[in-house]
Amino acid sequence: MGLSIKGKLLLFALCISLMPIATITILYYFNTRNFIKQDELDDIAAIAESEKDHVIAFLEFKKARTSDFSTDGLIREKLETITYGRKYKAIENLNKHLSTNKKPLDTSILEIVVLDTDGRVVAATNEALIGLNMSGHEAFTQAIHKEVGECFTGQPRYSTEFNTDCIYISAPVITSNGNGEVVGVIINVYEPEMLDDIADIAEKKDAYRRLQL
Questions:
Q1: Where in the chain are the domains?
Q2: CATH number of 59-196
């Protein structure tokens, strides 16, 4: 049995009254979804920016470490001695100094190598590297022309010299007599995972900060 004219009119009126509600509901849904999506994108962008800042600050700290090593009195003294031909004992002492006194200061260092002005490894935490020619390596070619306190930082990549993925930070070693003469280059070889660690720390800090808001 069909609806009466009165029933049809009531149904029509009900549909008309529900249309604005349905429209508002749909608009609210899409606006809310876009807002949440934008909020999530903003959070991701903020996390990425924060992680970038943390990584930059972290690398600056590692550069400061390398620069500090390059001005170490014993390293400069022994490298000068090696450069001027009195090699054997100086190399032995420098290898020991790098392994015993310098490398333990930073657990993310894989190796420390010291090169002469020809780009040849004259001392290292891994003595098997002594004699290796790195004259064409960017860690040497970029650092040899730097000023005191300046460093070169390479991109994370696989190293055939060390047979592993790593990051190089290198700095010139200047004579201690004040004439500014470069007597070699020191390279700190870092494991790239250190960047993952600092990124994880940054993300946890940001998550904690958002919880406090």
A1: 59-196
A2: 3.30.450.20
